[in-house]
Design brief:
- Two copies of one chain form a homodimer.
- In chain A, 34% of the residues lie in helices and 23% in strands.
- By secondary structure, chain A is α/β, with parallel strands linked by helices.
- In chain A, strands 1, 2, 3, 4, 5, 6, 7, 8, 9, 10 and 11 form an eleven-stranded mixed sheet that branches.
- Chain A is elongated and about 75 Å long.
- At the A-B interface, α4 and α8 of A face α4 and α8 of B.
């Protein structure tokens, strides 16, 4: 997941956990039969084994699946086969084109005065260094703000080191600041004539697995090669700077591969409804290349697919079509999410609601909506059903997910089933994002919450209004 | 540390935590002044900052320091300067020759049916693969025993995978079994015609940092290239084998460098005593190459040096000389420990007691001795002094430490200040063995326990007898 900064900003803006009084008065309710069905879906979700099987299958049989890579193409084939085998209809790949970036090799080390290797990983989109790397004196900035405040000269021939730490939070709000550092260090260093930028990983762990992530969106030509140090290596470099009597010199060598255009795609499957209205849900199929993407975002794929299957297994068609999308190439530019909105812009008026699961497999603890103001009372129906799963009512400022950002910007209401992310950034974008990190019971709680949400979203009388259209969805 | 298997076997053999009644009757006691001094040393140890400074200095300014490498030579220079700056006397390097082995590069991956990289590290002493690696079908053995029980043919062209897990224990007793797997897999696989051996790391964590360690001692010519998979990668390979309909093929590429003879050395410093009797203590200066060796064994160096300094700072000379040794090249064959015993064999009768700290920086929770039977009552004196640090009496089957094994075998009594190793094998021999893993308060408790032990060992009337001489100390 990315662009959590947006979410965080939204959460800060609104501190209200109450719906307006007028909305409460007009809030609809489920019928007794519907309430019973939602309850039984929660029971079934809490005993679900399908999500784990999907998660294990994708992370084992495909493994890492970088956006635009042959591995991501194998993941699409996997997705088509999986959705078909589960009985989804209209299963297809919707292709799009995108630029390609991949790491080839990466290494770094202190050259003097304390020669030793440093664990680094290239940030996504980084340019390569020359073949022998770059070697320069390290200049440390405790935060990105201090780098931004530095004069626009004086770093010629230097390697910038942005040592800003990241806060551990349940809601992921530490990530906004961390993303700023990750995405801007290369540009800010380049502006000032530096050779390269190193950042302390945007992560909360203390293992020697650096965190990758997108670096230089819209950066223009000043961006220099950029890499993340693992947190212990950032500690080490900071200590070396403290202990050394003179300059600390580092070598950084990043080699990357790029292609102007490759083909990627979204995998789509449906549980056809009685009407032409659509509820679109899913996760992103791609992962960073370092781990097997168990929490980011095979869990989201597994949770949403298993929840849709539970709803699809009920007697009779759902009222609305449930469309599951495995978005492609999210990590490297949200290509799949943007392509989906573009490809489906003519049927956006049929899209009643959108939601993405893309924050690991931690328990859902809060339900946020972004409904039209006049429909916000409907949140109460979901909140009531989810209460037994220890899900607390949230606000009407839901982010929704990176891949439905473009869809949301075309006016489609969204919800967020907010997950506990306390440990998420220990693993996020590292080699350590592997299956063993997922708790099967937490995964089941997610399936239960999503199944109940999805059922209600499909069956509830009336829709959730429309959001203001922003831009063109791009 | 290594050879813990010996320690574990000893712990299993004896379950007695009592000293014989006869020894209790003759047990000596500290004078009031001595008891007060021991107590004040504990107070000082609990406020000690020197051990942390030594630990930070060695791990930062030298970093990884593989036995026999240029980095280990820098560590010796560091050790000499550190001991001199702290006021130790007779500071010197005692050199010896040893064979050299170093990793150059290592990689592995599933080739089919689920192509993806696997995180591996070469086991110490492994031979190289051909330049393009070896590729073969994986044959999994749940334990070493099952590999050992397999017929001596039938694995031609295969890659053996020993998937045996390791138990998490406070006393490190899970390591004995794990070492057997690590040291014997390559030989057992080679005997049966296999191309290579992969083992599940001898470690208790779930991070993608494989655990290295010595592999092929006395293995002869049948040993094949051998590497450890991280625990998540071993899980992944096991799952791939379960899910694949046909064979799972893996490529393993290990490149190594060896030299017949290089020079290494032990760093020695002393606090001269009033007599020519010697108490020898220390830790090992080398580390594996992957981490900075904070827990293995810069902590041991720091704890014993800081404790000796505290005792040396008391008014007047200690009764016995306290000799601190930073043994070299322990991980790659206990070369320093053996060389020490050989170089000092003519003064072994002056060695009253030996002890090593080489199990990380976890709190000391038990005090074991290996005294002559008739002197075992003296353990009570130490036990009494250490009680306020929550150190419990142990038995008289102390291992002592790998580097004092050869000294012990020449008849010198030893003690073990047993440390809590519950988390030790999460980090041991991995890139994750870094400074941030050490708790400063635990480190201080170690210094306090070692200072009190050392003071009593130096001042107590009478010695600890002699142990049976075993072999020639080699």
């Amino acid at each position: 997941m990315k662009n959590l900064a947006t979410l965080v900003a939204a959460a800060i803006v609104t501190s209200s956990f109450q719906v307006p009084a007028i909305a409460q008065e007009t809030a609809p309710a489920l019928t007794t039969a519907q309430a019973g069905a939602a309850d039984r879906l929660i029971d079934a979700g809490l005993e679900d084994d399908l999500a784990w099987d999907i998660l294990e299958s994708l992370t084992t049989e495909v493994g890492p699946r970088l956006g635009g890579s042959p591995a991501e193409a194998r993941a699409r084939d996997w997705g088509v086969a999986k959705l078909k085998s589960l009985g989804f209809k209209n299963v297809r790949i919707e292709t799009y084109e995108m630029p390609y970036w991949a790491r080839v090799s990466e290494s770094a080390g202190i050259v003097s005065p304390y020669p030793q290797p440093l664990a680094v990983t290239a940030l996504g989109g980084s340019i390569a260094t020359p073949e022998d790397g770059v070697t320069g004196e390290v200049v440390r900035f405790p935060t990105l703000l201090e780098l931004q405040a530095a004069p626009e000269t004086g770093l010629e021939g230097k390697i910038v080191f942005v040592d800003e730490p990241m806060a551990r939070t349940q809601d992921g709000s530490g990530y906004g600041t961390a993303v700023a550092k990750r995405s801007q260090a290369a540009v800010e260093a380049g502006k000032r004539g530096a050779l390269a930028a190193l950042i302390r990983s945007a992560g909360t762990d203390s293992h020697r697995n650096p965190h990758t992530g997108g670096a230089v969106r819209g950066a223009g030509k000043t961006a220099v090669p950029a890499a993340a140090l693992s947190n212990p290596d950032a500690d080490q470099l900071a200590r070396a700077l403290e202990r050394a009597k003179g300059p600390v010199t580092v070598n950084l060598n990043l080699q990357v591969e790029t292609k102007e255009t490759v083909v990627s795609g979204n995998v789509v499957g449906e549980i056809p409804g009685q009407t032409d209205e659509i509820i679109v849900i899913g996760g992103h199929l791609d992962s960073w290349d370092l781990g097997t993407g168990a929490i980011d975002d095979a869990s989201g794929i597994a949770i949403t697919t298993a929840a849709a299957k539970l709803v699809g297994d009920l007697r009779g068609k759902p009222k609305r079509t449930i469309r599951v999308v495995m978005w492609g190439a999210e990590e490297v530019g949200i290509h799949g999410g943007k392509a989906y909105a573009e490809a489906h812009k003519d049927e956006m008026d049929k899209h009643v609601l959108a939601a993405e699961s893309d924050f690991g497999a931690g328990r859902v603890y809060r339900f946020d909506t972004r409904f039209a103001e006049e429909e916000v009372g409907k949140a109460k129906v979901f909140e009531g059903a989810l209460r037994r799963l220890a899900v607390t009512p949230g606000n009407n400022m839901a982010f929704g997910g990176a891949d439905i950002g473009a869809t949301r910007d075309l006016g489609v209401p969204v919800v967020s089933l907010r997950q506990d992310g306390t440990d998420y950034f220990d693993l996020h974008h590292t080699p350590d994002d592997t299956l063993d990190k997922v708790d099967p019971e937490d995964l089941r709680q997610n399936v239960a919450a999503w199944a109940a949400f999805l059922y209600i979203a499909s069956e509830l009388d009336g829709d959730f209004g429309r959001l203001p259209v922003r831009g063109d969805g791009q």
